[in-house]
Specification:
Blueprint: E1 11-15, H1 19-31, E2 35-39, H2 42-51, E3 56-60, H3 68-76, E4 86-90, H4 95-103, E5 108-111, H5 116-157, E6 168-175, E7 183-191, E8 194-202, H6 207-222, H7 230-241, E9 251-259, E10 264-270, E11 275-279, E12 284-288, E13 308-311, E14 316-321, H8 324-327, H9 330-336, H10 340-351, H11 356-368, E15 380-387
Parallel strand pairs: 1-2, 1-3, 3-4, 4-5
Antiparallel strand pairs: 6-15, 7-8, 8-9, 9-10, 10-13, 11-12, 11-14, 14-15
Helix pairs in contact: 2-3, 5-6, 10-11
Length: about 400
């Protein structure tokens, strides 16, 4: 018997306008332990399947009023019944008839006269496949629920609101390539008049990168941070990450301290894409780069993190981003014989007159326009800052 391993009988609907066929198939399948629902025409089959969807349908092709093809098309067009497997029954044995049956949504084709063992074998196979499909679908739905929860968790660790920095407008953009990603950023008040600006990009994207970003986020938040040195904070982070970072994984990171009184930016760039300052009134561009590699691989002795200070002026705009924004220019940079960053910089220069919010969005859209499917292959995060007075 088919149901020795479980108590719930699998439900099979048989649709045929010939009573003898219904009796014969019902006897085959009932002996095997299935719950059988014989139906004599297509319209009854549709209403019955809608009211109580069976696990599988055996469907005759030649029937009056509504043939099997029409019934199957309506089943597949209905959200409630579209996933029910349909095995066609027919006396027609030509290849074109079978192709037509499959094209209308059938999963199999049994020719008349019926052989009991063939019918039972086909039914068992497709019920097993359907059970596997339902299991996989349930697992996928569970994964999606967990990913959605992880997405909410990641959004929760990012700034819920930005600090009000005197004479500064600041804006951010966070676009993970999947539901969750490996980019993180923080903008926070470090002490009276001084503000920390941190952006990090963990290796890869998706779940693995997000898990690493949670770890880096927690460590960074708990670090004692001095307002006098960004390199000191990076060294503490690197030291804490070394024993915990999996082999081959690392993070690029930019960390700056903005002094709202002096309008200076003290910063360390740890292998992160080079940020830039745009001085609109003089059309000058400055790169924010320092010595020092990525964090999480080499010791502080091997990786000599440096820091620099930059004097900002009213009207200056600061632009930071993760590497998704420059990687899209790889092919173009090869053709032009210049770096990917240069392509981005050249575009930014053409838009430098825009307010920071518009500039950031224009730069994002420019990068997006160079993707193959209007979707970045990696997480994209941006921070824009404009000194207003």
């Amino acid at each position: 018997m088919n149901n020795d391993s479980h108590n719930v009988k699998e439900n099979i609907m048989i649709v045929d306008d010939v009573p003898a066929n219904l009796r014969l198939l019902s006897s085959f399948l009932t002996r095997e332990g299935y719950e059988v629902r014989p139906v004599s025409d297509g319209r009854l089959a549709l209403s019955g399947a809608q009211a109580m969807p069976p696990d599988l349908i055996l469907l005759d092709i030649k029937m009056p009023e509504m043939n099997g093809y029409e019934v199957c098309e309506q089943l597949k067009g209905n959200e409630k019944t579209r996933e029910i497997p349909v095995i066609f029954l027919s006396a027609l044995d030509a290849v074109e008839d079978k192709i037509k049956a499959f094209s209308h949504g059938g999963v199999d084709y049994i020719t008349k006269p019926f052989q009991s063992q063939e019918v039972i074998a086909r039914v068992r196979t497709h019920l097993a496949l359907q059970t596997s499909y339902k299991l996989i679908k349930a697992q996928q739905e569970q994964i999606q629920k967990e990913l959605e929860q992880a997405r909410k968790t990641q959004l929760a660790i990012l700034p819920q609101s930005l600090p009000q920095i005197p004479n500064v407008e600041i804006i951010t953009k966070f676009v993970p390539t999947d539901q969750i990603g490996g980019d993180i950023y923080y903008i926070f008040e470090l002490s009276q008049g001084k503000y920390g600006i941190m952006m990090a990009d963990l290796t890869g994207h998706g779940i693995s990168a997000a898990l690493l970003s949670f770890m880096v986020s927690g460590i960074f938040k708990d670090l004692p941070k001095t307002e006098k040195s960004t390199a000191a904070t990076i060294k503490l982070l690197n030291q804490a990450l070394l024993p915990q970072m999996p082999d081959g994984k690392f993070a690029t990171l930019f960390y700056g301290i903005y002094d709202a009184v002096k309008q200076t930016l003290l910063y360390t760039n740890a292998g992160h894409p080079i940020g830039q300052v745009i001085r609109n009134h003089s059309n000058e561009f400055f790169e924010l780069d320092t010595e020092g590699g990525v964090v999480g691989i080499l010791s502080n002795a091997e990786n000599n993190f440096k820091e620099k200070e930059f004097q900002l002026q009213p009207g200056d705009k600061l632009l930071l981003y993760t590497d998704a924004l420059v990687d899209v220019f790889f092919k173009k940079s090869q053709n032009l014989g210049i770096s990917r960053t240069e392509i981005l910089f050249d575009y930014v220069k053409t838009q430098s007159h825009l307010p920071i919010a518009e500039l950031l969005e224009q730069v994002f859209q420019y990068g997006l326009s160079h993707t193959e499917d209007n979707h970045f292959d990696d997480d994209c995060t941006m921070i824009g800052l404009e000194v207003t007075a």
